Amino acid sequence: MPRFSNPSKLARIYHRLVNPPFQSKPISTTPVPTHDHIAHLILEQKTATKALQTFRWASDLPNFAHSQSTYRALIDKLCTFRLFDTVHQVLDEMPGSIGSPPDEDIFVTLVRGLGRAKMIRSVIKVVDLVSKFDETPSLKIYNSILDVLVKEDIDLARKFYREKMMESGVEGDDYTFGILMKGLCLTNRIDEGFKHLAAMKSRGLIPNTVTYNTLLHALCKNGKVGRARSLMNEMLKPNEVTFNILVSAYCREGNVVQALVMLEKSFGNGCVPDVITVTKVIEILCNEGRVTEAVEVLERVKSNGGSVDVVAYNTLIKGFCKKRKAKIAVGYLKEMERKGSLPNVETYNVLISGFCESGMLDSAMDMFQEMKTAGISWNFVTFDTLVNGLCSGGRTNDGFKILELMEESKKGSGGRISPYNHIIYGLYKENRLNEAVEFLSKMGKLFPRAIERSSRILGSCKEGSIEDAKRVYDQMNEEGGIPSALMYSNLIHGFCQKGLIKEAFELMNDMISGSYFPIATTFNSVIIGLCKEGKIGSAVNLLEDLIGRGCLPDVESYNPLVEALCRKGEFQKAWLLLLQMVDKDVECWCCSCCCQRGMAWIGSDMGASVAAAAI
């Protein structure tokens, strides 16, 4: 009989189990371990061999005899290592060792072990194995076999139920039918699931909540939420899971009205959906800008005894930030702390982003510093968000400082180029183009491939080889590269110089899609090009769109439009643009004849005074 390789070590473990450290005296001079102690010791072993040795070692302990529980622990461990031949040997020795055959829990353990090993035929044969010990398989054993089979092959499971269970006079219980329902729903046999439900009722069985929930989930997964809602009305006792399924389904459909109705119904039934479901409702409301209702949902959940975690609060905070109400969002940060849901890095990142998007850059910096005080480490998203906000908001020098902090941190940028592109964008927006080119060249050590391509594009644009520049740009995009604002600007100028206005216009759309908004010197080229092509309406629409996006025009933005409109005799439109220039404090130096002709067309004292102001 094998012995444990280190009996003294095992003896020490055993001694610790039977004599806990808080106990001043041993239980006795020869303490007898409990079966739970030995079972736990067997399950702790890292290999099957050691588990067997531990079991045999315990057999030799004075006054100790193995039981069903210690044999079950050993068989569980042997199944983990797929030593099924050894399992059969252990089973065979049980009657002689403890005076009784294996109990149903041991056979259930074996069934699950065989199931994990995908030995499906062997799972079915466990019924015959039970009979070998002159025992009748219990319903628990049958159900455990059925549970394994439905996960692999529902048809095989149904055959087992008919030929092995029903022919043996075992019709099963609600758990049996629930398992079969699970198998049907896993294979999307929803119609058969309804037939199965009817069969249960015809046998006098009342389907339990789990069975109904299984079918409800399958219906919702297949987009049949209305039918699921009707089925719920048949249920005697819908529970939290029932409402989780239906509320989540309505949220996936974007049907916020029905999601709220179902949420209210759950409260009326004394149920509170779990925090994941509640978060989905909050998210869908926030996405529609209905943050006040999201707050009401949060409060209702808490008042009904439901739990709200940091993810739910973060979702609500994000909703307020999207509405440009970051100051209100900070209030929920404080509430989180009072309620015991500690904010995390995501909480602060959302707030920093919200303040940046609202132009409240000092508050964003305060949040950044507060993270340090709260002991929350900055991550890449923190740095990237703040650098982007500062550079987009005209504080590129502050963006440089945050970038330096990121570089000093353990992970730095992690090979991601976006914070550096934000710096380039900031320099570009401030018209510090020479500094932007210099910074780009310094990036070469960190991103050699990307900067080499950027330099090729800038060089080709300077030389007038716009086709070569576009080719490199397309290749960069195909490989997932992220162009900088400087690159976009040079390409747009290059296209315009070649008269390729359509291509320049499309590239500017790409630039805006990448959250880089062009400055006047960039979009003026496109406006001039459109005017030269006689597409004055398109040029005016472009200017209006860019102003609506926050881009700042200059005199060169208006001058070609005013002149083109005056040449066409469209003095009213030209005059409206002049008025817009005055309104935006853009200094006008367009040709005096345009203003004089426009003034004559207006023919009013007001027109004359505005023209004089414009000149």
- The rounded distance between the terminal residues' Cα atoms is 109 Å
Largest sheet: none
Helix-and-strand structural type: mainly alpha
Helix content: over 70%
Mean pLDDT: 89
Assembly type? single chain
Outline type: elongated
Count of extended strands: 0
The amount of beta strand, in percent, is under 5%
Low-confidence stretches: 1-8, 16-28, 590-595, 597-615
CA radius of gyration is 37 Å
Q: Can you count the helices?
A: 36
Pfam families: PPR, PPR_1, PPR_2
Family: Belongs to the PPR family. P subfamily.
Keywords: Repeat
Protein name: Pentatricopeptide repeat-containing protein
Description:
With 615 residues, the chain is an all-alpha fold. It has a domain at 519-596. It has 36 helices and no strands. The protein has helices spanning 7-18, 35-44, 48-59, 68-80, 84-98, 104-116, 120-124, 126-132, 139-152, 154-165, 174-186, 190-202, 209-221, 225-232, 240-253, 256-268, 275-287, 291-303, 310-322, 326-339, 345-357, 361-373, 380-392, 396-408, 418-429, 433-442, 448-463, 466-478, 485-497, 501-513, 520-532, 536-548, 555-567, 571-583, 592-602, 605-614. Helix 21 (345-357) packs antiparallel against helix 22. The N and C termini lie far apart (109 Å). Residues 1-8, 16-28, 590-595 and 597-615 have low confidence and may be disordered.
